[in-house]
Amino acid sequence: MKYRLITVSWGQAHTDIFLRLTLRSLLAPGNLAGAPAGTFSYPIYTTREDADRLQADALFRRACELADVSIETFSLKEIDAGNSISHWVLWRRGIAQARKNGEIVITVAGDHILSRGTLARWRELFESGSVAIFSPGLQVVRETLKPELDRRFPQAMPIDLPVEDLRALMLAHLHPSNIIMFPDCPATTTHPEYRLMPLPGRGFQQSIRTSHAVAFNPGAVATTDNLCPLEKLDRIAFEPCRFLSAEPFFKAAPHYMMHERLDDVALSRLGSWADEYMSPVHMLESDVVHSYSLTASSPAELRMGEQALGFQRRQLLASRTLFRVWRSLRTAGLIETARWLAAGAVYGRLRRQIALRGPLTVFAPIDYSLLRIAPDQANSLLNGKARALIKTIKGHIALGEHAFKPGQRLDIFRDGGIVLADGRGLDRRADGRIRIVGQPLRVDNILIYPVDRPLMRLSMRALTREDRLAQVRRICRRSLLHSKAQLKQLVIAGLRECPRAMALAQKIRNRMYAAGNLETDGTPSLTLEALAALRGAVRARAIAQAQRLNRFYATEVLGGGPLENTVLTRFSQCLEPPDAVSNDPAAGLMAVLDVSPDFSEAWLETAYQRRDAGDLDGALDALAKAATTKPRLRRSLADPHPHLVAAIEIAMIHSDRQEPAQALAALEAAPHTRPYPWRGYFLKGAALSQTGRAQDAIAAFDRCMIADNVMPGLDGVLPHGLH
């Protein structure tokens, strides 16, 4: 078998990391070293300028002796150089060539560090019949790991790490973007690609939710654009970590700077994420648990962790099932039915109230009937975190799969042959008051039948002409949005066939957005002093949050183990120069705001500082100013408006204080611009339900199902690394 390694790297900093870390680990025994001649071809995609740096390096020349190494140059005009995932464009180019040559692909990112024997192990798996290999590369802090590797392996030497040593380094240098994957961690992420469970004092267990194949045979298995196999799933190997990804400390910092947690609410609305990212191969991958520990754990301890990870996986898949049911209802035109289901899913935690794994039959009342629910009845359904609504939804779910025909009639009977989830009986009756009004919808192992009325006795009112018109408008708008989404997918699919056109389209879109997202009214532009003060404050907050996460990791995961103190020590030693951290960022910001008070982002940062210090009233004052003063920084397509961010922060404080009217006022005063974080919709829905506006509340919960977990990207504010 022949293999094609593919690496993409550009820019002096990335090229240096590739040479000093990645390439040196590839020179270790069992990787490029020791392989039979002709085993590996190795195209390295880079710019012409960086190609000169590579070819002048002795390590590169050594690699050329072990494999058929080639330089494939590209222009930065072919990609979006500011987007870190642009390497996929070049990966796909290499994959196409491998398919043509009959080679097996191994992707090697420019910051990966492979353990000794990794490539030999993967070759062994392919030679035994595997068509693809999944193996997680956990992220580690580059600024702390690189000095340690430099001490252990002088620059002229390969980085020769047995897999056990590599995993010990992973435990000692775990990146904050990984630490937030633990339960009870004081932060969360928009992309929970795996779940970690502590083995206290030893290490942790890992269950992956979504990833891509690190190696596969493109001639033997079809894959998605994201390198996920679509077939031969029984011939896929799921391996534990054999390589690390050395990431800059501040990479993904907006994720671990958030103070939200992956709580019950967040897990309930992750159904859309799981539906998008968890393909059939991930169902198999997520059922595998990897353990990484310094010392052996007892079988009972391992089983306990596996059970906890399995429970969270089942809950995530339950959210996915509810999302798929919700989407099918909307596609079928049952908009009002979908809204009530969304309220039950995100507000009432429906996934915890009923097992969604077995065959089920759902009876979905058509919109005509649900629009007639009286306002008092609608409000009572949402009272007390929607307890009455959950009971009502369970009263429309039958255990098992049952076949019906359109026109058949049903009714509730004590001895009905069909058992509903709330314990009542349902049976076929010629004179039944409930009628099946359409063909069933199938979602996985769930059958959904539209019925002409609810199966529960609810207080109803007469349907008005305005109600009917509003429903028609909803259906038309939904159809228009669906057509727009399909057209967008077709355009993107076409652009992917021409990477240069895709890169150009992205640049045009980003520039158009950047040009229109900053209000200009003749106000003086941002001074260098103001920007420096903001950067210092954001940097200090990121470091403080990372220290908080490291303390959590050291005590909750490594507590009592040999790495407990060294984790915090290594990180503290890396904070150089010391005076850059010891400066008072709060005083610096306030000095700027005294001179330039019209600076929304600075007020927002001031609010975070006060909140972190426990001064919630002071935080509210700063947030009020952040919500009314002018934004000074340009935003990317992924950045919510600062006024919206401030409003959500205000609403969160008032929600914790049980003040729904104040929370609602803040959210309704904020601009409703995209992207709109899902937490804003949830807070709005909760406040509306508590203030007696049930119909508006279910509309907000409905938006919760698909809104993203976005946060300010702080582009151009956060530094790239600690130094």
Structure description:
The protein is of the alpha/beta class and 723 residues long. It has 3 domains: 3-186 and 210-252, Alpha-Beta Complex (Spore Coat Polysaccharide Biosynthesis Protein SpsA, Chain A), CATH 3.90.550; 332-451, Roll (FAS1 domain), CATH 2.30.180; 529-704, Serine Threonine Protein Phosphatase 5, Tetratricopeptide repeat. The chain is 49% helix and 13% strand. It is built from 28 helices and 21 strands. The strands form 5 sheets. Strands 3-2-1-4-10-6-11 form a 7-stranded mixed β-sheet, with helices on both faces. Strands 15-14-21-20 form a 4-stranded mixed β-sheet. Helix 14 crosses helix 28, helix 22 packs antiparallel against helix 23 and helix 25 (642-656) packs across helix 27. The chain starts with a strand and ends in a 19-residue tail after the last helix. Mean pLDDT is 89; it is low at 519-524 and 577-582.
- What fold name goes in the CATH topology slot of the largest domain? Spore Coat Polysaccharide Biosynthesis Protein SpsA, Chain A
Oligomer: single chain
- Sequence of strands across the biggest β-sheet: 3-2-1-4-10-6-11
Q: Taking all residues together, what is the mean pLDDT?
A: 89
Rounded to the nearest angstrom, the distance between the terminal CA atoms is: 44 Å
Radius of gyration: 28 Å
Helix content: 40-55%
Number of domains: 3
Notable characteristics:
723 residues; alpha/beta; FAS1 domain; seven-stranded mixed sheet; 28 helices; globular
